[in-house]
Write a structure and sequence with these properties.
This protein is an alpha+beta fold. Helix content is about 40%, strand content about 20%.
Length: about 120
């Protein structure tokens, strides 16, 4: 019997298991969205630490956004995470959507990160 009985937890574990199979050593771009903000971080799973992080709470973004919970905020966070990643020397990642469907804010963040130069 599985310990993770919550459907969201099971879905998240299923996505992460597939990512581990196909990542081939690339870091993972993980997305978390709450009702008020959106967060993204690039994680090196082999070393077990976060390389780069960005969110709608960052000082540069917080002033220019109407709210942290819309598509415009997700696009800004996607662009910021890609810029920070290229500055840190990360060019290719695997996208971890977590338990969220690839739609709306999650898709906007991914598309903005791709347009800013991150490959996945």
């Amino acid at each position: 019997m599985s310990k993770a009985t919550d459907p969201n937890e099971r879905r998240k574990q299923r996505v992460r298991t597939r990512l581990r199979k196909f990542s081939s050593g690339r870091p993972r771009l993980s997305v978390f969205r709450s009702s008020k903000h959106i967060y993204a971080q690039i994680i090196d799973d082999t070393a077990g630490h976060t390389l780069v992080a960005a969110s709608s709470l960052d000082k540069g973004l917080r002033d220019g956004l109407k709210t942290g919970a819309d598509i415009e905020a997700a696009k800004a966070v996607g662009k910021l995470i890609a810029e920070k990643a290229t500055a840190a020397g990360v060019t290719a990642v695997v996208f971890d959507r977590g338990a969220y469907i690839y739609h709306g804010r999650v898709k906007a963040l991914a598309d903005a990160a791709r347009e800013a130069g991150l490959q996945f």
